[in-house]
Amino acid sequence: MKKLALLSSSLLLLYSCGSIKPAAPELPLSQLNETPLPESKIDIPLSINLEDILNDNSSKIPSQLTGEGKVGPAKYTWQANRQPFGLTFLGDTMHITDEAQFNISGFIKNPFNGQWTNIASCNADLHIGISTHFGFSNNFTLFKNTHLTQFDLNACNLNIAGLNITPGIKPQARETFGKLLDTLGRRIDNYNIKPLIQPVWASLNKPVKIGDIGYITINPSAVRVGQLVTSGNTLSMVAGITAKPVFSLSDPGKSTSTTLPDLTGGNGGNGFNLHLDIHLDYQQLNQMLNATIANKEIPVGAKGHLLIKSADIYGAGNDHLLIKVNFSGHQNGIPYHGLLYFTCLPVYQPETGNLYVSNIDFDANTITRLKEGPTVWLLDAGIKKYLHDQLHFNISGQINNLKSKLNQTFNQPIGPRIALAGNIDSLTADGILPLKDYILLRVSASGNLSAKYN
Fold first, then answer.
1. What is the pTM (predicted TM-score) of this model?
2. How would you label 216-243 residue by residue, b for 16+ Cβ within 10 Å and e otherwise?
3. Cα angle, residue 171 at apex, residues 170 and 177 outer, rounded to 5°
4. Which of 96, 111, 190, 221 is least enclosed by beta carbons within 10 angstroms?
5. Could you read off the pLDDT of 369-418 as tens digits, one per residue?
6. Which residue stretches of 391-436 are H helix?
7. Cβ distance 197 to 239 under 8 Å?
8. How many CB atoms lie within 10 A of CB 345?
């Protein structure tokens, strides 16, 4: 009985001597390095039917005009019937033409009864030309520099009582038509495209949901207008939005500012840049890891071995990833078991989609504990190399899923008349930080994006 107790005590002593339970690593918190995000430039193609604008303004101008005047003892009246405006383009200039037919009548007053008698009449033609150059002011006014380029009245030589009334008709008709054309010019000069851009601006300030991943808010900050192109009666342009998109995991709630700023200069483009935070769950990674290394036996010397029962990777808000290994084994007839802690740096390779580790080493607490007893040989047992070789995860599926959902988001309506159109070309790793509940992988997405206004 005493021998059995002595044997049990000896085994317990041997077992306890081979028990390794160092304190868990304590590492200072780190910050994720963030690459400055370049501005995104989003193009919004817009088109305006200039004929509609012209017809709308033309309808506000009378189609029939009249006038009268006196020449000595005689008087004259005229009536002009105006035709609809015509529209042609030349480069960045819009030419408006108008034709009018004049009927001119001359009258002599009867000295006996005071009645005016029509003694002559004739017809004449009026040719009017107006030009306006396209341009934009900072308050979104579309046209400028509208001016009269032609006013030809082919007045007939109507003589009354030996007097030619033609010289009097021309300036009077010019003054009358001039006032109307000035009104048309002001209407055209004051045409504003802000109602076209305002709803686009408001929509881009609203969060856009990306599947079950999170939300993107475009955050436009400036508006510019590029080159104007005419085709038929249509004026086409590109309104460029400068933005700083933001990704968030939760709904940011209310829209950002919807106030449309003044137009600015600058180059166009449709480059789109965005920081994205990807959360890599430890549970899923550890399932993948243990499927490979759990119960894996590593030879140690000629007669020993180390058995990895399980392993867990986790983080503590430091840039190092932590590994906890639960192991057992024996060396020179002595059993041992316990925990080992390692530190390493996580590395993401976007070209292959691989997440792996570098600079793997025993944690300082584990090194101290191993050096205290007969298990110092574990420092050279080859487990570091084994873990380094096994800690490889291909997360391209998760990345591609994110990329796919982004591309779906960038090709959908975001308002009653507005739809996004674009795609993500590449994802670049900016930084990686192992937090308590997940590995935070920050990537920069780049591609192109435009907004179509229907």
1. 0.64
2. bbbbbebbbbeebebeebebebbbbbbb
3. 90
4. 111
5. 989 877 888 887 788 999 999 999 998 888 888 888 888 888 888 777 77
6. 396-409
7. yes
8. 14
